[in-house]
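Handout, section B. The chain below has 424 residues.
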Amino acid sequence: MEQHRPLASWVNVSTDSDFTIHNIPFGVYVSSTGEAHCCTVIGDVIVDLAALAERGFFQHIKGFHSKVLERSSLNAFIALGKECTNAVRDRLIQILSVGNQELQSRTEILEKVFVSLASSRMVMPLEVGDYTDFYSSKEHASHIGAMLRDPQNPLLPNWCHLPVAYHGRASSIAISGTPVIRPVGQYKANPLDAVPIVGPTQRLDYELELAFVIGKNSTLGERISIHEAEDYIFGFQLFNDWSARDIQSWEYAPLGPFLSKNFLSSVSPWIVTTEALAPFKVPGPLPDVPLLPYLQIDGAHNYDIDVEVHLSPEGEDPEMITRSNFRYMYWNVRQQLAHHTLTGCNVKVGDLMASGTISGPGEREQGCLMELTRNGQSPLLLKDGTRRSFLHDGDTVIMKASASGSGRRIGFGSVVGKVATARN
């Protein structure tokens, strides 16, 4: 099925919906019987894929097994391979398109298959085995380096030669809406203090990111080349990499983040496929230095995806404080995966690779408070008259992402987290 021409659905979808017929993302919801089923969404309606499969809608797809849609995660479905999962997605687009009566005319099936999005509980769509967080925005790395190291030479010597990253904690990646319990850690209350203290972080921050989902296993000892990397990427999630900046500044030398990052990362309920995002590919920034052959690739391999951060103090309406774009990333996802596996490191279905903070060159395009407020030196003035250097208890952070153009819109939904007081 041709995915690059505008389509229309017989399902009522508002013009500003993230979940148009061009999208068809995948997630997992809990049904009225308490069972977790794989699903998609169009407009404000969840489509239960297990219920569709039970009624034979996917029976002619090569390699398809209906039982994978009755699981509490998408891992088994993704592991069927892109030929199969793309065929399922194409079949859904066919069923939901204007003029198709297979589902539209069968009220008794619609009642079993369609579920209200507003009244549904979404759950973590993946079993994440491993998680890597990259550091791929030149603007972000330059801002942070200027504040913490050298304003004249903010980037470390290796930064323009390879995609910097660290291995994070998979167990604390959680679904949007999970409370953000203010972490306790060791830090210096004042950089000039002789000794550190233990206490709740005073510099809690968010980081605006996207993460790609590994779609097939690789073999230990074998590299994934930059030209085959996209075959291993199933899709993308919106990602908030919560950070405790005071803990981070004390612990990061010599090995990087640890407790400052391991307490929670939040993801969107929906995985948007690479196929849905294909029309929004754009060229990325030109490299500042000649790249080694394994990282060289021409063409459009970044994505034109608008990303936003909204902040809502307790009892107040949200206000947008950042709007940036994923196209600014210096290192693209193919380069990230090729570098990750250069040693022969193997990847597995469900692994997550986060982009690192998405920042741009313009005003209010910084993807975290540390950048927006110059490490707390220039607090952000909010509409309610309060100021923020870092997050307060009761603050809610809402992230959004979408791509639009040529008569289509692809959205990720949102990632939401509310800050709760530290536990004793």
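Note. The chain has a mean pLDDT of 96. Compare this with the example in section A.
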